[in-house]
Amino acid sequence: MFKYDPPSELLKDRVILITxxxxxxxxxxxxxxxxxxxxxxxxxxxxxxxxxxxxxIEAAGHPQPAICPxxxxxxxxxxxxxxxxxxxxxxxxLDGLVHNAAQLGPRTHLDSVKSEAWMQLMQVxxxxxxxxxxxxxxxxxxxxxxxxxxxxxxVGRKGRAYWGPYAVSKFAIEGMMQVLADEQDGTTQVRVNSxxxxxxxxxxxxxxxxxxxxxTNPEPHEIMPAFLYLLGPDSRxxxxxxxxxx
Length: 246
Ligand code: NAP
What we know:
Layout: E1 15-19, H1 24-35, E2 39-44, H2 47-59, E3 66-69, H3 77-90, E4 96-99, H4 115-141, E5 146-151, H5 164-184, E6 190-196, H6 203-208, H7 224-231, E7 242-244
Parallel strand pairs: 1-2, 1-4, 2-3, 4-5, 5-6, 6-7
Helix pairs in contact: 1-2, 3-4, 4-5
The structure holds NADP nicotinamide-adenine-dinucleotide phosphate (NAP).
């Protein structure tokens, strides 16, 4: 497990947007960031799940979050620009952006993947993070010390049979991370890195490995130290790195 002992007020006064914040790793990230003082912007497609996370944060007495329902499969350029406009009016900047939402898609030989399934997965896993990053860049540049995390996977660093468009999409976000990181290097205060959570007890893991006993893997809250490290000031000099949470 990534070793980092975050101070309780690590993310005080930071505004952090997390996609897929209603479930799994994204939910744990939202709860953990809020518990360390951040105002979290909860982005996801299922309003009821986002509201449940909102309620949990509020009940714990952490900074009041914001809810932004957005389906990354159908969101338009205008939706991303509108979101950026709302965040600019409310906060004036963005200190953290966590591209966490993703779909697993078909796990089969690449040559039997239907074009429609391929396009759908690329829309959510690749095109949406691109459009969201582009819309958020002015807000990230307005923050004194902003951090972008692309949540990756081991199959986005070494290809593996039958992992289909999911693996290809994770290679694409690793590439996006490297290009963006190199562009920011020495020119802005924004750092960009990727983080592989490793096997984690979520709905996606269960879908990928239905026969695996869930207790084999850590729960999402257990892998949060790496996320907190990358979102807080201690990682200020880390840019363009592909890190592992476990
Ligand atoms: P998960 O439990 O399936 O959660 C995925 C989240 O993404 C959910 O909140 C889901 O929303 C959201 N999402 C999916 N499609 C969306 C869309 N079209 N628009 C908006 N939100 C959408 O998965 P997870 O295991 O937490 O995965 C989180 C990240 O970690 C992913 O990038 C995944 O590739 C990566 N990862 C996970 C593991 C693992 O073992 N769990 C390992 C390596 C990498 P709904 O809840 O509304 O469906």
